[in-house]
Design a protein that fits this description.
alpha+beta; Aminopeptidase; elongated
Length: 370
């Protein structure tokens, strides 16, 4: 049913396209052509203009041939860095990066599963309700495409986002909220060799704050991380200013706010101790979501997995995706594994068999919606 070689050839074609966040123009244009060649019209929204990118989200409707609720299929077009000049290597059943860049299977694998599933539905004349496809921009780092997607144009009851890792059959039904945290610590500059006592070190304030801060795995629902610390001018100058970019995540909003406040308190107490100042800003990047195991979308997944002999594994994830936003917009959504592995690294790889199985699963899902 699934054309394995067609999938491999098209995957290799698409991952070679440079498509960094906010620079998805070439990928969008190529996907427009592919959907048009299948006989489907594609619209591009104005999300790119709103977020400062060079392309918008692609939206395509495929009319149904049976009376069933509409479904939304989603994947994102952008990749993380290093993602320029990608050179995929086929090694038996594995497609991997050459080691100098990411592979880009996050999320070309999701795109390819959707394209092949649509072809199979058409070729095999599989009965289905209305299908909406959304290929989004700027998912990495902010979910900006999904945030600016007009779901009023998408008459779907369920959404299946093809953007998860793990073995095929893994489906994320719970995911956390994330607070983006920006901290500026201000001390006082002074000559480090002549009069260091007149200075207030922003680095020392940060060290004091971090030493007493709960980070990493806080509990089974909550994590926190300091990702970037930058500042200072020279070794002979007491550091006056330090910038820190951090995050906190939790599937429980009370825990998220508690962790965020804890981090803020640590910085403020350290600044007070040494006579400096702290500017602490927190912004909710995306909300959490949780799908009940008795919800209709889970019944669809169970039926579909049984039909194709895939073990369904419903799980909680610590990552955010377009799924968070689509649930917030009122369409019940889950994130489905396409088998991607070691994403966001130059060791990224994907198993061809997994992509084929993920596509079989997706076809079965669409056919199981009644």
């Amino acid at each position: 049913m699934i054309n394995r070689q067609r999938m491999v050839d098209e995957f290799l074609e698409l991952v070679r396209i440079d498509s960094l966040t906010f620079k998805e123009r070439e990928m969008a244009d190529r996907l427009k052509i592919k959907l048009d060649d299948m006989g489907f019209s594609v619209e591009e929204d104005d999300a790119g203009k709103k977020i400062g990118g060079n392309a918008g989200n692609l939206i395509c409707k495929i009319a149904g041939n049976k009376n069933a609720p509409g479904v939304l299929l989603m994947a994102h077009m952008d990749t993380v860095v290093p993602g320029i000049g990608k050179k995929p290597i086929v090694d038996g059943n594995i497609i991997k990066s050459d080691g100098s860049t990411i592979l880009g299977g996050d999320d070309v694998a999701g795109i390819e599963c959707i394209l092949e599933a649509i072809r199979v539905l058409k070729e095999k004349k599989v009965p289905h309700g209305d299908i909406f496809i959304a290929f989004t921009v700027a998912e990495e780092g902010g979910l900006w495409g999904a945030k600016n997607l007009d779901t009023d144009r998408i008459n779907a009851k369920f959404a299946f986002v093809m953007d998860d890792g793990g073995s095929i059959g893994h489906v994320a039904i719970t995911a956390p909220s994330q607070n983006k945290i920006d901290v500026v610590i201000t001390g006082m500059a002074a000559h480090a060799g002549i009069e260091p006592e007149k200075g207030v070190s922003a680095i020392q304030i940060a060290a004091e704050a971090i030493s007493g801060m709960k980070l990493g795995r806080i509990d089974d629902e909550t994590t926190a991380n300091l990702g970037i610390i930058s500042g200072g001018q020279a070794t002979n100058i007491i550091c006056e200013r330090l910038e820190i970019k951090a995050e906190a995540r939790s599937r429980n909003m009370v825990k998220l706010e508690t962790q965020t406040k804890h981090m803020k308190d640590c910085f403020e107490k350290a600044a007070e101790k040494f006579g400096g100042k702290v500017e602490f800003k927190s912004e909710l990047l995306y909300p959490s979501f949780s799908i009940g195991e008795d919800d209709d979308i889970i019944k669809i997944l169970k039926e579909a997995s049984n039909k194709v002999g895939i073990e369904l594994k419903l799980e909680a994830t610590g990552g955010g995706s377009d799924t968070n936003i689509i649930n917030e917009k009122g369409i019940e959504a889950v994130d489905i594994s396409v088998g991607m592995d070691k994403v966001h690294s130059v060791e990224e790889r994907i198993c061809i068999d997994d992509m084929v199985k993920a596509t079989e699963f997706l076809v079965s899902i669409i056919a199981s919606v009644e």
